[in-house]
Amino acid sequence: MGAEALLLLCLLFALLLVSLKMYKKKAQLPPGPTPWFLLGNLLQKDVLPLSKNYAKLFEKWGPIFTVWMGPKPMVVLCGYEVVKDALLDHAEEFSGRPVLPFSDAVNRYKGQAFDLRKYTRIAISNVICSVVFGSRFEYKDQVLQEMLRIIEDFVSYLVSYMGQIYNVFPKIMPYLPGQHKKIFGDFEKMYAFINEKVESHRETLDYQDPRDYIDCFLMKSEKEQTDPEAIYTIEELIISVQELFIAGSLSTSEVLACALLVMARLPHIQEKVQQEIDDVVGANRIAGMEDRVRMPYTNAVLHEVHRYQKGSLESIPRQTTRPIKFQGYLIPQGTTVCPEIATVHFDPLHWENPEEFDPGHFLDEKGQFRNRVAFMPFSAGKRACPGEALARMELFLFFSALLQNFTFQLIGDAKDKDIFTLYEDSGLKTGDLPLKFIRRSI
Ligand code: HEM
């Protein structure tokens, strides 16, 4: 037998092994749309992206089903009962986080038209900068603008089709040309920038007076210096700063942008919010956190904006930390699990008018704010978002200050679009939101 025939035989054998493994796993997991060999459901437009197809899949397969990201399965959880059962009642077993090869590769790489979002992004990132670096940046600062551009490119790639393909074929993709190469280069710049900040913190660290997150981390790492398994290393510090920056910058400003689009789309709701701001805060100061309890309508509107979002960012996958018997299936350790938060937020068993934008979902009969169990935009359980309290404060303060001073209106063909289309068209993009804003005389 010639070398080429032998090679072909080996290749066929390897493919056979992969497909046997895939179909063996498939038999154990919850059912779902049939995967193609090796590619899984990747190229099936009626399955992925999940954010567009989960409703039909839920209808067909029930609240727990499996989709295949290439040869790897991902168990999808839908509806309040199942998501709560996983994230809260089995918090430990579902507390893992799968390695997303693309983020991992990036982390290891050291390496009246008016663009309102550009400014809200900078303002919101500056809050993270104060916590992490102990200082904020000017709005025109080139370094901050460059960092935000890098994060934006990274997140857009991660949730794109090519990002999913990278995660499925992490061994091949680095050798192919494409946007990922540029992102690696960009992250080298970001790494160098954070490294510089860490160095300057090290030189000026005062143990009696820690200034920020970096100082606290450095103090902890000094204490652990002799421990061979120390986790507070400089490498970890830089990666964690990078992650805080990525997680804390875009998410909050995207929700804020959505809130303004909804206000422009539903002027009667915008008017009621403005009325409440005028009554409680007036014209001579801006709202503070202490005002929130006295502004139930504004608070309810912000919660409803969160509930009504069906985006690509909200469902970050988990991983099982041990084998678990769950909802009648034995899910092996290390399986990727995706709680589809939008299915909780549109669960007809928990919401009176799930398909309607209705702040009343968060108000009791006396018009007071009420929390809802099936509301979890920051997820729930062990790996829930650690930035929730900060994000909620930022949203309330920015939103009420903007509505106190401006009225928002849609422009151009956006006037005829429904809220979901407005969200979808403007999500994670740079450039103008289709809004004009008119200064209020207060
Ligand atoms: C409106 C704004 C935000 C939303 C909707 C949001 C939502 C989420 C969600 C759904 C998760 C996944 C949690 C899970 O798997 O259970 C998450 C994780 C995370 N968020 Fe946020 N987040 C927001 C703002 C922030 C902010 C401001 C920060 C930083 C200060 C932050 C830091 C993080 C981090 C570090 C994680 C990963 C936690 C882990 O893996 O254990 N987030 N966020």
Task: Provide a descriptive summary of the structure in words.
There is one protein chain. The protein has 442 residues and is α+β, with helices and mostly antiparallel strands. The protein folds into 2 domains: 3-106, no CATH class; 109-310 and 346-439, Cytochrome p450. Helix content is 51%, strand content 8%. It is built from 15 helices and 8 strands. It has helices spanning 3-28, 50-61, 80-89, 101-108, 116-133, 142-158, 161-168, 179-204, 213-223, 234-265, 267-280, 296-307, 341-345, 388-405, 419-426; strands spanning 64-69, 72-77, 318-319, 324-326, 329-331, 336-339, 406-410, 435-439. The strands form 3 sheets. Strands 1-2-6-3 form a 4-stranded mixed beta sheet. β4 and β5 (329-331) form a beta hairpin. The radius of gyration is 24 Å and the shape is globular. The N and C termini lie far apart (88 Å). The mean pLDDT is 88. Protoporphyrin IX containing FE (HEM) binds next to α10 and α14.
Per DSSP E runs of 2 or more residues, the count of β-strands stands at 8
Question: Might you state the CATH topology name of the largest domain?
Answer: Cytochrome p450
Report the CATH C-level class of the largest domain: Mainly Alpha
CATH architecture of the largest domain: Orthogonal Bundle
Describe the strand arrangement of the main beta sheet, using strand numbers.
1-2-6-3
Question: Mean of the pLDDT scores?
Answer: 88
Order of helices and strands: HHEEHHHHHHHHHHEEEEHHEHE
In DSSP terms (H or I, runs of 4 or more residues), the helix count works out at: 15
Ligand catalogue: protoporphyrin IX containing FE
